Structures are given as C-alpha cells and as structure tokens.
Amino acid sequence: MAELLTVNDPDDPRLHDYTGLTDVELRRRREPEEGLFIAEGEKVIRRALHAGYGMRSMLLSAKWVDAMRDVIDGVPAPVYVVEPDLAERVTGYHVHRGALASMRREPLPAARDLLATARRVAVMESVNDHTNIGAIFRSAAALGMDAVLLSPDCADPLYRRSVKVSMGAVFSVPYARLDSWPHDLGAVREAGFRLLALTPDATATALDEEAPHRLERVALMLGAEGEGLSARALRAADARVRIPMSHGVDSLNVGAAAAVAFYAVTAGRPQP
C-alpha cells in the first residue's frame, strides 16, 4: 500500500520528478536519463500500470485521493498530496486532471525482435512534434498496426504530451528506434516487409492501387509535418504511395494521413 504524504513546499526534493514539466528541452533530456516518464490523468495512469510500467510516485490534489484509492492501495510508491496551486508552482502549469504519476521506463526492444512477429509496421522519420507522435500512436493502436519504428530524431513517445494525446495508446503498440537511418530500413526489407513511402507527390501511386491490405508484410513510412519524408528515405522505399485528394487540398496533416493509411493497410486483416 502506498504512503499518503502531504507536501506544502514546492521546493521539496521529493517532488523532483514533477518539476518544470513545461520545459520541453529540459524534460526531453532528463526523463530518458533518469529512466522516468510522466503519466497525466486517471485513465492514462491506469493504462500505464496495466501495461506493466512500475510507479515511482504519484502527485495528487486532495479531491483525487478517493478516485485513485484502488491504485494507491495497489502500489508501493509514495503518493504526494498537494494543493492545486502548489502543483502548478511545481509543474509550471495548472494540472487540470489533478493526478500525475512518475513511471519507470522499460528498455526498448530491438527492432529485429518486433519485425520477427509483426505484419503491419509504421516507420516514422523525423516526426518531432509530440502531438503528432501521440496522434499517430493512437491511430496505430486503434487500427491494428503491430509495431512502430522510429528514426533516431523522432520525438519521445513517452513524453507527457505524447502520452496525453494518445490517451495511453503509446503503451499498447510496441516500438523501437532504428539506430542507423536510413540504412536500417534494409533490415526491415530483409525481414520480408514491402516499404511503402507515404507522400503527397502526384506522381506516386494511389494507396488503394497498391492494395497494401493484400500484402503479407507492409512497412508504411511517414515523414514529419511539412517536410515529409527525406529524399534518402524515399529512395530506400519499394514504392511511393499517396492518398488521393479532392477540392484542391494538397495533403492531410501527418496524424490524419497516418490514420487513413493505417486503415488501408489493415483493412480486411483478421483481428486478434
């Protein structure tokens, strides 16, 4: 059972995990180095625990103690109970959901291990916006993608904003980083995947013409908002595919495009 501890000092060192949550650059360095990530809100905290992540501590406003009582009773981590204004002073923003948890990161699997059992994989290059990362993971989970592979410069799926936007779906889809980009795309192909590069280029093949749902193994490549996939990534692909547009619209944002494309590559596939 967790210990309930009332904290009144925003400089209390026990609150170190929660300090400066709005400082993106600081948190992007600190959290992986210290082996933690922040789960925000009751649903996300519960999903992180259900996914097997260990809890370091919780930070709650008093009114959330009863709602989180079963979690408090089920984890051996300290629970810091604070006033809302103190939580804001510590974190740097108003904690609307009233509940934060510091969770322990787990080592990432090797890409080759994910590829051994997957059939539908999303591959992201330079997607460094946390909102887009979260939205893409949510769609990947909802639409039956088996795994996500990230280029070295993609944003952290476990950053608080990514986790929040995904509603905890980042815990449902296994992911790994490709250490050498785009060289490691060769290993994806060697594992039996056809690499499809998503691009708005009018010369690309319409996605439905490629019929990706009929392929045994598909790796769908997605680039960053605006820039899209790099020339190197496009050259490494087996085919370039596009989502046909209407009414003079040239493209969708990467989160929306990912959802459409994920459905196209998983449609008709038996679900577990």
UniProtKB/TrEMBL annotation:
Gene3D superfamilies, alphabetized: 3.30.1330.30, 3.40.1280.10
Keywords on record: Methyltransferase, Transferase
GO annotation, biological process: methylation; RNA processing
Tagged with keyword Transferase: yes
InterPro entries linked: Alpha/beta_knot_MTases, Ribosomal_eL30-like_sf, rRNA_Methyltransferase, SpoU_MeTrfase, tRNA_m1G_MTases_N
PANTHER family according to UniProt: RRNA METHYLASE (PTHR43191:SF12), RRNA METHYLTRANSFERASE 3 (PTHR43191)
Name used for this protein in its record: rRNA methyltransferase
